[in-house]
Amino acid sequence: MPLALLALAVGAFGIGTTEFVMMGLLPEVADDLGITVPAAGHLVSAYALGVVLGAPVLAAATAKLPRRTVLIALMVLFVVGNVLSALAPGYASLFAARLVSGVPHGAFFGVGAVVAAGWAAPERKARSVSLMFLGLTIANIVGVPAATALGQHLGWRAAFLGVSVIGVGATAALALLVPREEAPAPGAGLRRELAALRSLPVWLALGTTVAGFGALFAAYSYIAPMLTGAAGYAGSSVTLLLALFGVGATVGNLLGGRLADHSLRGTLFGGLAALALVLALFPVLMSTRAGAAAGVLLLGTAAFATGSPLQLTVMEKAQAAPSLASSANQAAFNLANAAGAWIGGLALAAGLGVTSPALAGTALALLGLAAAATSYAVDRRRTPAPPPTRERVIATHVPDPTEPAHR
């Protein structure tokens, strides 16, 4: 991995850790602040709200700045948000701090993906983006369990201080390893960035992200009750199985990046189809412990195989404003998180069974596949027909009677 890409991956590792660590510390936070666990759960939503609000706004507002400067500034804001979280005296201040922590998330991944793709040869762009996202998937294997354990033994505030230290290291790595660049051309700016979002193909690509990753979160949000209620695992085993999901996500991320460099659209279609198939098989897989473990691994692999293709597809559709479109795609991932969890919860609340959220996810994956197919149809309609070849012109040439005959 190039050192500059390593700096981006370290930043992604820190962001991925802080995004998911709150889920494992809800009881500790609730006890310390004297609130209920559901109320503490709103702190997860606060982070997601920060991502949705911050991603397009920061990407558009910083369009005229060198991307290296933007990445460093975003990581500094990330550190500030986590320090404020660790020092928050009460629930309201912690809610605000979590929102601040989420603000740089989408723009960092959005701008970082554009930078990573720009460093690579055309045939290796998806692989380069997947290496940056490697930090996010490894965070689910190492970062989140480690920060959760730290918070459980030393207090939840220690977990956020630990994440802040990672952020400081990432900031230093970005400053040292990411090469300086020229400022964007004078024509670049907010108006040009926003104009890119008027494109139907861009919105179809964003819709594919919402539906495709909504399918993942419809099932993953309720993976614990599936593992304990259907597969018969003890609650203490869930953490290990979630690490297995992280392994699958890492494999899928690397595989998707490699395959997308050969066929971007084919990898996207294949990944969404595989995700729909895995989710459809969940009721069967969750009937045994071995099947459940395989299902968790395959879920991570299938879902994250589509991550880099989705990111590159959005950037491809908005070539005039890749930073804003790429950041908006990160907001779409978080909308998918919220919408998928809500839809999966509806299936569960309707009494359709403990594995019913996975079937709801199947429907969302198929919806994402339909959005991708619609985008493909729109592209074909807009692509001009190729000009006639020389052979075609010669074959259809009608001789002029006034021309002299060739002997």
TrEMBL record:
The Major facilitator superfamily (MFS) profile domain, residue ranges: 4-383
Keyword Mitochondrion: no
One of the record's GO molecular function terms: transmembrane transporter activity
Lineage summary: Bacteria, Bacillati, Actinomycetota, Actinomycetes, Kitasatosporales
Membrane topology: Multi-pass membrane protein
Keywords: Cell membrane, Membrane, Transmembrane, Transmembrane helix
Entry annotated with the keyword Repeat: no
Protein known as: MFS transporter
Pfam families with a match to the protein in the record: MFS_1
Cell location: Cell membrane
InterPro entries: MFS, MFS_dom, MFS_Efflux_Transporters, MFS_trans_sf
Region (Disordered): 380-407
PROSITE patterns: MFS (PS50850)
Ranges that cross the membrane: 38-58, 70-91, 103-122, 129-150, 156-179, 200-224, 230-255, 267-286, 292-310, 331-352, 358-378
Main localization of the protein described in the UniProt heading: membrane
Record GO cellular component, one term: plasma membrane
